[in-house]
Structure formats: structure tokens, C-alpha cells
Amino acid sequence: MASNICTIVDNGTLKNMNGSLNVDDEGTPTRYNILVENGILKKYIYDNYYSFLVGKIKSTGNARRSSYAFLPIPRMTNTYLLNGKTKTTDIINSVEYGLYVSSVNGGEVDITSGNFVFSTTEAFLIKKGKITKPVKIQH
Prior knowledge:
Layout: E1 8-11, E2 32-37, E3 40-41, H1 48-54, E4 63-64, E5 73-74, E6 79-81, H2 88-93, E7 97-110, E8 115-127, E9 130-134
Antiparallel strand pairs: 1-2, 1-6, 2-3, 4-5, 7-8, 8-9
């Protein structure tokens, strides 16, 4: 799934954060969910409906609606990458060709494919372990 230094969590319990709630839109308490641990997918986010369809899985407290006119669906709360033990410079030095994303703004999950989609606000090109130039962001 991802590098073994990557752990991603979804945490609706953080105080004073935009995605934080005491309970989701179905009344289920939000919680700290480890989604990816050491690069391995461990858990999906669920509401009551999808947890029922899958069976033997409880809601993760992620039922959200965009307004009262819509049914709740599983949505991220505060989803983030945990700090690891590897230094940023060591990660960059190990990349032959890639992007260093220094700022993201919002995100979503395509529930049909499971893909995470994040809007990048600042990124730089990495070539042979060195940050070379900023990348123009297309919106």
C-alpha cells in the first residue's frame, strides 16, 4: 500500500479542529482510527450502513452529511500522517524522482475505488535525492 514508514490515522476526537465532533451524524462517538500502519492498510472508515453491509464491523464514527437533505456517508474527520522516526532529509535523499508536498488543503476518499485524493497547495520536484524546483499547482 505505502512505504513502511507511513502510518495514517483518522481522528475525530482532536480538540478545536475542523473535522472534530463528539458524535457523528448518526450519533456514534468519533474515535481515533488507524487506517494505514507501517504502510499496510488496517481499517476503512465506516458509518452504520456500510458497517452493516460488511458485517461484524462497528461504525468508526465517520458518518457525515453535507446537509440535512442527504443521507450520511463515511467521511474523513481529521486525517493525517503520523510523525515517524525517519528524518525528512533521509526520505528526500532516497527519492530518485518524485514530489515533496509541503502543504495540502482538504481531501476526500473515492469510496468506489478507495483512492485518497488531496488538494496540494505547495509542492516541489525531487530529482536524484534533491529538491530542484517548485511545481505549479493546477486547480
